Amino acid sequence: MPEKEDVSAIDRPLWPAVRQGLLNQCPACGAAPLFQRFLRTGSRCAGCGQSWEHHQADDFPAYIVILLLGHILVPLMIEVNFAFAIPMPVQAVLWPGIALVLAIAMIQPVKGAVIAFQWSRRMNGFAIPKD
Fold first, then answer.
1. Transmembrane region positions (predicted)?
2. Are 14 and 117 contacting, i.e. CB atoms less than 8 angstroms apart?
3. Is 45 contained in some domain?
4. Distance CA 122, CA 114 (A)
5. Quick one: CA dihedral 47, 50, 8, 17, positive or negative?
6. pTM
C-alpha cells in the first residue's frame, strides 16, 4: 500500500503560486484553470484535486483593483490634461470608460492572486489537515 504523503512537508512557495493565480491557473499544480466562470472558482482543481471551496477572497480583490486604478488613472489624467485640451464632455465619457475596462480586465487576475496567496500561506481552509 502506498505511503500517505506528508502534506506538512509540501512546500508552497509564494511567488510561483501568485504568478499561477494571476494567469488563472491552479496555484497548486498549474495544470488546470482556477476559475470555472469569470469570478467563480471551481469547487476542485481538475488537475490535482485541490479544493477551492474554502478561499475567502471576499472584497479584497476589489480593494486592490480600486487602489491600482487610482494609481494608474490619476497620473494619466493629469498628464493628458496637461498635454491636450480635451473638452470636458469627452473626458466625462473617456475616463469612466477607461476605468471600467481596466477594472474588468484586472479583477480576475487579482482575485486569482489573492486566492493563490491564501493557498500558499495556508490561510483559512488551506491549512494542513488534522487527522
1. 60-86, 92-117
2. yes
3. yes
4. 12
5. positive
6. 0.84
Question: What's 39's DSSP letter?
Answer: S
Number of structural domains the chain divides into: 1
1 falls within a domain: no
Give tens-digit pLDDT for 9-53. Answer: 578 888 999 999 999 999 988 889 999 899 898 888 888 888 888
> Which residue range forms the structural domain that includes residue 50?
7-126
Q: Is 44 helix (H, G, I), strand (E, B) or coil?
A: strand
- Per-residue pLDDT of 61-98, as tens digits, reads 999 999 999 999 999 999 999 999 899 999 999 999 99
Q: Which three cell numbers stand for residue 101?
A: 475596462
CB 72: neighbour CB atoms within 10 A? Answer: 14
Q: For residue 25, what are the β-bridge partners?
A: 33
Angle at 73 between CA 68 and CA 76, to 5 degrees: 135
